[in-house]
């Protein structure tokens, strides 16, 4: 298991922010050598755009193009939609990034602030 939270000093709308989170997640998996890898999002529209390589929106078409390139090199990658209620860990990591204003990465571990959520999900 690996996790990260990355602070991006940018003003994205929620849709672009979710696509950027997927992009950063894929980069994290690739850099850590995590294969196979499952990325989950509670934003169906963002996942559909990533999976369908829908580049119609110029404001984030470049990001989607980068994601498509990465996906073609990363055979063990799965991007899927999950219910918002199942995305508590990701939401807490996002809050941690905003609270600390820094990037943090964990391999074979996790930040203490998500321990209770992981125990509730029986993930670890």
Any overview of this molecule?
- With 124 residues, this protein is of the alpha+beta class.
- Helices cover 49% and strands 15% of the residues.
- The strands form 2 sheets. It has a two-stranded antiparallel sheet. A two-stranded parallel ribbon has the order 2-3.
- Helix 1 packs across helix 2 and helix 1 packs parallel to helix 3.
- The longest helix is centred in the N-terminal third of the chain and has 19 residues.
Number of strands: 4
Largest sheet: 2 strands, antiparallel
Oligomer: single chain
What's the domain count? Answer: 1
Q: Note the total helix count.
A: 5
- Give the CATH H-level superfamily: Ribonuclease H-like superfamily/Ribonuclease H
Roughly what percent helix? 40-55%
Approximately what portion of the residues adopt beta-strand conformation?
A: 5-15%
Order of helices and strands: EHEHHEHEH
Q: Any idea of the CATH class?
A: Alpha Beta
Trace the largest sheet across and list its strands.
1-4
User: What is the level-2 CATH architecture name?
Assistant: 2-Layer Sandwich
Shape annotation: globular
InterPro entries: RNase_H-like (IPR053151), RNase_H-like_dom_plant (IPR044730), RNaseH-like_sf (IPR012337), RNaseH_domain (IPR002156), RNaseH_sf (IPR036397)
Protein name: RNase H type-1 domain-containing protein
GO molecular function: nucleic acid binding; RNA-DNA hybrid ribonuclease activity
Organism: Dipteronia sinensis
Provide a brief overview of the structure.
It comes from Dipteronia sinensis. The chain is built from 5 helices and 4 strands, in the order βαβααβαβα.
């Amino acid at each position: 298991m690996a996790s990260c939270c990355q602070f991006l000093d940018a003003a994205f709308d929620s849709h672009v922010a979710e696509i950027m989170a997927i992009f950063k997640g894929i980069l994290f998996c690739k850099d850590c050598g995590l294969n196979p890898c499952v990325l989950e999002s509670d934003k169906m529209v963002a996942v559909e755009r990533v999976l369908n390589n829908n580049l119609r929106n110029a404001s984030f078409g470049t990001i989607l193009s980068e994601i498509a390139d990465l996906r073609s090199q990363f055979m063990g990658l799965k991007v899927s939609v999950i219910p918002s209620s199942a995305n508590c860990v990701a939401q807490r990591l996002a809050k941690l990034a905003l609270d600390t204003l820094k990037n943090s990465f964990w391999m074979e571990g996790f930040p203490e602030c998500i321990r209770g959520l992981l125990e509730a999900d029986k993930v670890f």
